[in-house]
Amino acid sequence: MIRWNELTLQQQQGALMRPALSASKNVEVAVNDIIEQVALNGDSALITFAEKFDKRSNVRLQVPQKEIDNSVKVLSTELKVAIETAYNNIKTFHQAQLPNSTSLETTPGVLCELRYQAIDAVGLYVPGGSAPLPSSVLMQGVCAQLSGAKTVVLATPVNGDKKIDPAILYAAKLCGITTVIESGGAGAIAAMAFGTETVPKVSKVFGPGNSYVTMAKQILSQSQPGFAIDMPAGPSEVLVIADERANPEFIAADLLSQAEHGRDSQVILLCNNTLVIEKTQQAIETQLALLPRADIARAAMQNSSLILVESIEQAFAVSAEYGPEHLILQLGEPEQYLPLVNNAGSVFVGDYTPESAGDYASGTNHVLPTYGYSKVYSSLNLLDFFRTYTVQTISKQGLKALSSAILPLAEAEGLDAHAYAVKVRLEQLTND
Amino acid sequence: MIRWNELTLQQQQGALMRPALSASKNVEVAVNDIIEQVALNGDSALITFAEKFDKRSNVRLQVPQKEIDNSVKVLSTELKVAIETAYNNIKTFHQAQLPNSTSLETTPGVLCELRYQAIDAVGLYVPGGSAPLPSSVLMQGVCAQLSGAKTVVLATPVNGDKKIDPAILYAAKLCGITTVIESGGAGAIAAMAFGTETVPKVSKVFGPGNSYVTMAKQILSQSQPGFAIDMPAGPSEVLVIADERANPEFIAADLLSQAEHGRDSQVILLCNNTLVIEKTQQAIETQLALLPRADIARAAMQNSSLILVESIEQAFAVSAEYGPEHLILQLGEPEQYLPLVNNAGSVFVGDYTPESAGDYASGTNHVLPTYGYSKVYSSLNLLDFFRTYTVQTISKQGLKALSSAILPLAEAEGLDAHAYAVKVRLEQLTND
């Protein structure tokens, strides 16, 4: 237990320090090589990578439509319903984010509009690993579906000679995705950035991934004009603010459900009560003993801090400085504290709002800025699948009125052709 | 004149090719050195750079408030009114973009919200060069003001021993900016990313700049967690679509008002009429003869193409492929073609809507994605000064209802602690 007020400023900064990201030079070299091979050899490079990295034989790149359609038949009813419920809630929440154009006259005869255009072609990446991640399909796929993007590509690795998981396919089916590519890692990202014989070229790639995926997204978004990514990536993290009446079992469970994500996950508790912190420590040990991923969670707990604060207000100040991906408020009357929230990716309000609700099914998006990026980046939302552009329509009278602003500014900025483009039109008006 | 339909696919791609960006290794090395010096030496590094690059003596970093306040006194009435008119129009258009939270129940007892938070601290960069750019202050400053950002820093270089231009200061004053820093280039960007004794640290930097500024923005946004930039930069460009009734003098003036921006600017005309193209060519020559920046404009015209298309519909297809920063429609009944617009930064509709209207005073923002980035990036808008985050508040009943979705998904994904965070709460409910 750390007592916040007994720390020096430097120690306080140390307590909130995130584990260093070790994007090694090796990863960069390997990823650049993968990118080059995909650019040169397209599909055949992807097949080679699937054999090499995913240990597959008879590699198939695209899932047949029939397999997507039939996926529901091999799911348990329980999982089918769970995926449908999550899909519906995520869709309801994101549908409410559909944007409206803005249109107004700034000056009589000067109509200005802000319009939205769905990004034409998007790529959704779902990492592999020890278990399939249908929730990751839903979080990205619902947005792509609602945006009306013309091309939607889902790429995910499949390990060994297993079949692609039907839960992934059923989530894709609900989202109307027809292009599912069995390819992962940096190769899959490069394939979506360049396009290959099988993989359509996209303008923006979404989704989490390992250090190779992250590096590929970073390199390609910097080097390929017209190719963008959702947001920078970092390890997952949670910060819990709890008061004297909070339930230590709940706190421990929330901390561990973050810690089990990965060894580099970070969890922080800010609490104003010594006893609650001590009981949370005990509950963590008890719950860890029962946890299949205890090794991972225990490693993550090494990066983590249970901190005694003087007041709940102080806790919010510390949280704003840290900028957590997930912020859980186990407080009596938590709503009164919402105005103090700053720099959080997603906020979980009250004792009965665990992080796992938002990870799966409340309706909010679980793709969130982490590693301090929540000071400036947004949680994934529907607008990330759109771009805005402006339209102006100016009448003859409107241009006359604006000219008294345009001409002196163009002159001040030494841009005579800018001024002339107005003058030549005003002359024409005089001649008319 | 290029006849589009007589080109091979490869020649068509060549005709739309943008000039290569030469971000040289030298620039990268120099910028990394500048960043390091600012990180180490703060203000004193900025002073050294102002002496070296801007040829200043007695360098002052911060403009006194009194000088900002008094700037209006030394402006001509004409320029004062122009700045005020532009400010008002830009403010009117961007005020209409102020975001509203979304709040709804996705399931009874499951309240989900999308909220907006102004980015706390923003930096606005205005390049120096041969003339001051008050319009660049307004485009960025109005957004910062409307967002309510707590810290707003404006940085701009001042050449030689001139005073900072009062038009810059008056534009800043209208936008409520009190921190104006006389520093430019990569050093100014680094100062805003790190903070120095004089320069407040910011989370996001906006604005155009030369290759050093662009490189500094790119390096720092990749290496400093929690530091972001507005959008990738590229040379400016315009694409005009004109029909047989368009006025060649207007077309020429619009092409040249883009070409005078810089030698690397690109201008493209798509027209369905040979005669109009020929007359435009003549008008360009005539207008060039009168242009002070004719050298620059002439160089830019080398990268440029006047293209004969078969139909206006074909012109829109070519434009969508190119993705122009500015798209000007000199068409009869242009509104009917707006549904065909794709991948443009800002659209100028009709014969009396020159690009310079949007550059200065119509109300739309002139910070736009260029170099093909308009396929995926937005024109600068008020939301770029905000971030979104989500909030969920779940009741006991709400959690019960959601659990049938959360538990099977957590199990399918092998995340037991995620499931336990729900189960421990359901147990408590049973015990209650």
UniProtKB/TrEMBL annotation, chains A, B:
The active site is at E325, H326. Zn(2+) binds at Q258, H261, D359, H418. InterPro entries: Ald_DH/histidinol_DH, Histidinol_DH_CS, Histidinol_DH_monofunct, Hstdl_DH. GO terms for molecular function: histidinol dehydrogenase activity; NAD binding; zinc ion binding. Its cofactor is Zn(2+). PANTHER family: HISTIDINE BIOSYNTHESIS TRIFUNCTIONAL PROTEIN (PTHR21256:SF2), HISTIDINOL DEHYDROGENASE HDH (PTHR21256). Belongs to the histidinol dehydrogenase family. This is Histidinol dehydrogenase. The gene is hisD.
